Inverse folding.
């Protein structure tokens, strides 16, 4: 039996397993849960939603510089890169330290709505995964699974948590990023066949929104040269149209190149960051309103590019970004998704910190989409949102990114029936379930606190907490208190959690001690259940 035949058989088994009565029961349970909690949830969060946070109906399309949902409402993609499938472990990293459902819940609780999920063609052809502690909670689900089957489970759980997935063809083998879309022992046909496999496998998976066709074309890769062997723009057309023939509702995400663009104005670019040629030589897809361009951008912590040493730094960056890629959004040619950016320094004095702060401001001002590199702490040159224990959040980095993120507990994503593909039953991704209403402090009524259960499974749960200043003056030095009888906190973020018996106190991080009027601080935790009485109680906030 050929490898392709084995894949097709697995695909058939997967489809059968998800069209049965058990799947229907699961969907009905989620639907009932959403109806029961909808009134309470809306009372907690509707008043503070931005237009981009409104309930999202799939599929997504483009309109000028915007990504819009099926109802035409603008959507902002706010994501992280969680890498590992493209490496020798052949599964996302960190599962040696964390339960994968717990990891997804933490991503959601911090305000992100998208995971860019890198893979390697070699990995998806393999039969085993490694680097997973199968004794940790729901990681047992992954035991004995192939990389592709593990991807299935992670994507399905992301749907339950209200997270979108952008698939990223990051490598061909699981060792390095190739210059072109073929090489390292793989042909263009191998690359295309893998995309066709994934489009077939996930075309009815509602939270898979698109295909990032090839990570960081560079070196010999060109744009607009009409050389079939190197012109990435032509290869992107071939792959994009092959994907759309199977999954016409997906977004097609196309990165830039490094150099070799006729008439380019800038002398240097990051790998995958050069989209100067896309205006003159656009990617032509068979289906309109599905194209998104995606540069990558980094600071001197990754490589000390010449422009970081120019006398005009950092003001010179604005022109670079406009010429290199943002003109596509400014001229309403297509949306721009920053597929990768990141770095260790976020301070206001180092060159990398200055670059990263200015780029975050640029993303915010231009309303660009992004996926931060990375969630993982084991990215050697950038670090991650998580620190090395795979639990603690890098508070300074998250504080910088928080100005780009949507509000806590966004409402459920809904999936519209697509007439262009076999119809799907409308599916509602479950909304976070409230565990406590807004509880004003007995000692300081201007501070209000709410908690929402982001994820709840057999052995554990994760809760997000938001403290908001509803007064007209700054609130300084506050503390949370709550009770939790039969649960043990395994990890937390954006606060110092202290326990005495079943009572907890939480002190904010240094940067969150002062809350300005109408501003909020988000924190939270994941816990293991020790009995039926595990839910948070008597939640209150007070000023010290």
């Amino acid at each position: 039996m050929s490898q392709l035949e084995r894949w097709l058989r697995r695909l058939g088994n997967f489809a059968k397993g998800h069209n049965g009565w058990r799947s229907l029961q699961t969907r009905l349970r989620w639907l009932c849960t959403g109806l029961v909690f909808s009134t309470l949830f809306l009372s907690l969060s509707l008043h503070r939603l931005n237009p981009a946070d409104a309930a999202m109906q799939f599929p997504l399309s483009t309109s000028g510089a915007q990504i819009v949902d099926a109802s035409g409402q603008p959507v902002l993609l706010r994501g992280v890169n969680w890498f590992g499938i493209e490496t020798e472990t052949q599964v996302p990293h960190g599962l040696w330290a964390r339960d994968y459902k717990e990891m997804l819940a933490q991503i959601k609780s911090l305000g992100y709505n998208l995971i860019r999920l890198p893979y390697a063609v070699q990995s998806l052809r393999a039969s085993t995964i490694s680097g997973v502690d199968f004794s940790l909670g729901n990681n047992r689900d992954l035991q004995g699974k192939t990389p592709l089957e593990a991807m299935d489970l992670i994507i399905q759980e992301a749907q339950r948590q209200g997270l979108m997935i952008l698939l990223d063809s990051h490598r061909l083998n699981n060792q390095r990023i190739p210059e072109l879309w073929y090489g390292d022992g793989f042909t263009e046909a191998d690359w295309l066949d893998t995309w066709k496999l994934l489009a077939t496998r996930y075309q009815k998976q509602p939270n898979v929104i698109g295909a990032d066709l090839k990570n960081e074309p560079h070196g010999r890769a060109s744009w607009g040269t009409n050389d079939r062997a190197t012109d990435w723009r032509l290869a992107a057309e071939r792959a994009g149209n092959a994907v759309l023939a199977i999954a016409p509702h997906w977004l097609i995400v196309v990165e830039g190149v490094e150099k070799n663009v006729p008439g380019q104005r800038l002398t240097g670019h990051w790998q995958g960051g050069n989209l100067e040629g896309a205006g003159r030589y656009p990617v032509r897809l068979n289906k309109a309103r599905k194209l998104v361009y995606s540069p990558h951008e980094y600071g001197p912590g990754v490589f000390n590019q010449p422009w970081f040493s120019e006398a005009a730094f950092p003001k010179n960056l604005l022109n670079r970004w406009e010429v290199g890629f943002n003109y596509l959004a400014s001229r309403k040619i297509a949306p721009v998704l920053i597929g990768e950016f990141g770095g260790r320094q976020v301070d206001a004095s180092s060159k990398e910190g200055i670059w990263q702060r200015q780029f975050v401001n640029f993303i915010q001002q231009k309303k660009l989409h992004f996926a931060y590199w990375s969630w993982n702490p084991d990215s050697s040159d950038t670090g991650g949102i998580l620190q090395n224990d795979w639990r603690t959040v890098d508070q300074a980095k998250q504080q910088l990114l928080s100005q780009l993120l949507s509000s806590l507990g966004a409402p459920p994503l809904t999936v519209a029936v697509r007439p262009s593909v076999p119809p799907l039953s409308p599916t509602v991704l479950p909304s976070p379930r409230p565990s406590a209403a807004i509880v004003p402090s007995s000692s300081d009524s201007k501070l209000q606190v709410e908690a929402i259960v982001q994820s709840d499974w057999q052995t554990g749960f994760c809760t997000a907490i938001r403290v908001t200043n509803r007064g007209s003056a700054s609130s300084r030095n506050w503390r949370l208190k709550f009770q939790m009888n039969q649960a043990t906190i395994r990890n937390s973020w954006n606060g110092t959690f202290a326990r005495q018996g079943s009572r907890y106190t939480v002190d904010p991080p240094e940067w969150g001690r002062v809350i300005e009027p109408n501003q909020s601080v988000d924190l939270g935790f994941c816990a293991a259940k020790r009995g039926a009485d595990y839910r948070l109680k008597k939640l209150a906030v007070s000023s010290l």
Summary: The longest strand covers residues 447-456. The domain at 3-427 is CATH 3.20.20.80 (TIM Barrel).
